[in-house]
From TrEMBL:
The gene is tilS. Residues 27-201 form the tRNA(Ile)-lysidine/2-thiocytidine synthase N-terminal domain. This is tRNA(Ile)-lysidine synthase. The keyword Ligase applies. Pfam families: ATP_bind_3, TilS. One of its GO terms (biological process) is tRNA modification. InterPro entries: Rossmann-like_a/b/a_fold, TilS/TtcA_N, tRNA_Ile_lys_synt, tRNA_Ile_lys_synt_N, tRNA_Ile_lys_synt_subst-bd. One of its GO terms (molecular function) is tRNA(Ile)-lysidine synthase activity. Its EC number is 6.3.4.19. Residues 255-322 form the tRNA(Ile)-lysidine synthase substrate-binding domain.
């Protein structure tokens, strides 16, 4: 008799995500102890030896709740009993910049990256599911930040891999139950102060109730399609940037306006964003509003003054050239 269907689904997803790795490569599961990452870790422990891979576990102690140290130790011990070695606790200090969710995420990923580098891991597995993807798409839609935001989380991003993006949270819960694993339910996942929790507990259920079942699946499909489109536009924009760039050496970036005028708006604005970042504008602070203001120097040119950009930069049009440089532009 084979494994429970939910366990089989999780194992299959992990196997497919790791199929390209070299023999004896180290794969690490990032595990909080919740159902998603616990099912992921158990599947990795089963699949890795059969693919001739080494497998370990990382758990992050954010130090945000009483008992977090003990819970992290429990996860570490469970990983070791599964045969996931090395198994490590990464203790982090969470700041306040950008809000609690963003600060915790930044601290967590910094710790995972350091550990992966130190251990020379080929991949770090994250337990995000289809439900997480749906929540991410809705949050991106609310921000109004374009198709890249709607594309959600990538199945692969550098060393990080998300094998469970096509599976539901219900599947990981069932896999844990069938595998006699007891997940830890993080109280933060029920705290309505967090935007993602409100999406999970209020917004998605209302959509399911009013529009019918399958909303999460539809949002995940939207994310996949949006990512394909965004990737294609990014590739086009990179090629266009090379054609438009008169100079991107030193302290300024100069683009030919005549070449920019030939581009569709979606590609042109990507080129402008690429140029601003190349000139030194921080990508996290550079908004769609900034890019649209620069775009008007191309599409609605009336001799207007320079556009101020994050990082102390300006963009100005002069004699058929768009110049990005530190303000003031001489």
């Amino acid at each position: 008799m084979g494994p429970h269907p939910a366990i089989a689904d999780v194992r299959r997803a992990v196997r497919e995500a790791l199929a390209d790795l070299d023999r004896d490569a180290l794969v690490l599961a990032a595990c909080s102890g919740g159902a998603d990452s616990l099912a992921l870790a158990a599947a990795l422990a089963f699949v890795a030896p059969r693919l001739h891979l080494r497998a370990g576990l990382l758990t992050v102690d954010h130090q945000l709740q009483p008992g977090s140290k003990a819970r992290a130790a429990t996860v570490k011990d469970l990983g070791e009993r599964m045969g996931l070695t090395p198994a490590e606790i990464l203790t982090v200090t969470v700041g306040t910049e950008g809000g609690p969710e963003a600060a915790a995420r930044e601290a967590r990923y910094a710790a995972l990256a350091e550990a992966a580098d130190r251990l020379q891991a080929a991949a770090v597995l994250l337990g995000h599911t289809r439900d997480d993807q749906a929540e991410t798409v809705l949050l991106g839609l609310a921000r109004g930040s374009g198709p890249r935001s709607l594309s959600g989380m990538a199945a692969r991003a550098g060393r990080y891999r998300r094998p469970l993006l096509a599976l539901s949270r219900q599947t990981t819960v069932a896999a844990c139950r069938a595998g006699n694993l007891t997940p830890w339910d993080d109280p933060h996942n029920e705290d309505p102060r967090y935007t993602r929790v409100r999406v999970r507990r209020t917004v998605l259920p209302v959509l399911e109730q009013e529009l019918g079942p399958g909303v999460a699946e539809a949002l995940a499909r939207t994310a996949a399609l949006a990512r394909e489109d965004a990737d294609a536009l990014d590739e086009w924009a990179e090629s266009a940037y090379q054609n438009c760039a008169l100079s991107d050496i030193g302290e300024s970036v100069k683009l030919a306006v005549a070449e920019l005028e030939k581009l569709p708006a979606a590609v042109r604005r990507r080129v402008l964003r690429r140029a601003a970042i190349a000139a030194g504008s921080p990508s996290g602070a550079l908004s769609a509003t900034h890019v649209l203001a620069v775009d008007r120097l191309i599409t609605h040119w009336r001799g207007q003054k320079a556009v101020d950009l994050p990082g102390g930069l300006s963009a100005v049009r002069r004699y058929g050239t768009l110049i990005f440089a530190i303000s003031p532009i001489a």
